[in-house]
Amino acid sequence: MSRWPRYTGESPTAFHHFAPQDPSFFSPPTQADALSSPTDEDIAGMLGVLLPKGAAWGTPDNQELDPQTVLGRFWKSMGSGLAEAYRALFSVTMESTAVTLANSLEDWEIEYGLPDPCLGPDQTFDTRWRSLILKIRSAGTITRLDFIKLAADVGYSITIEEPMPFRAGASAAGGPDAIAGEEPVEFVWIVTVAGVPIEHFRAGEGRAGETPLGRLGLPADLVCLFRSLAPAWTRVIFAAA
After folding, report:
1. 23 vs 31: CA distance, rounded Å
2. I need a labelling partner for 101 at 20 to 30 A (CA). Which of 50, 108, 148, 177 fits?
């Protein structure tokens, strides 16, 4: 099946599409041009070109208008307001994408149901902005590789194992295939998080029937993201590397 390439250099017939690992690939594209942030002198020069030519206009023999003349200083003062208008207009275009926004974060959050409770109540601008990017990128997140990439965006290195069910005539006793219990194992995701501390049961400190034999110090934001975004048919089990 032919599918157009989503990334530079990708085969147009690729069936699976994987994002490049180069972090610079996701940097905001350059959208600036000569009028994105012009100086007063830039606009004054543009206005000067529109003036009639001749000695009466300070441009005998088609000479360039002297910026130090009264007329030159007048057009520079006029250009100041026009340059500010150009800068304001360009800033509006930057608000059209989440990766370049600066002043419209609250409007984007209303659209996407943010701030995200997974990241706590006290969030900085950068935290809220990253949360927005994650929310946008999570649209359509459904596969194992999607969630590995999403966790990497949050800052966690994980692996996801999908156990195979035990099949008579194909699986071996004692092999890696799991025997199904109350839930089909093909719907289980075993999410292993690197660097997670394990709190063990300690004699003299733990209490039988109350203290778990082992507890993972899982990051709350990662767990929250999985609980809210994992496909409804999956059962997520966390483990430590």
Report:
1. 19
2. 148
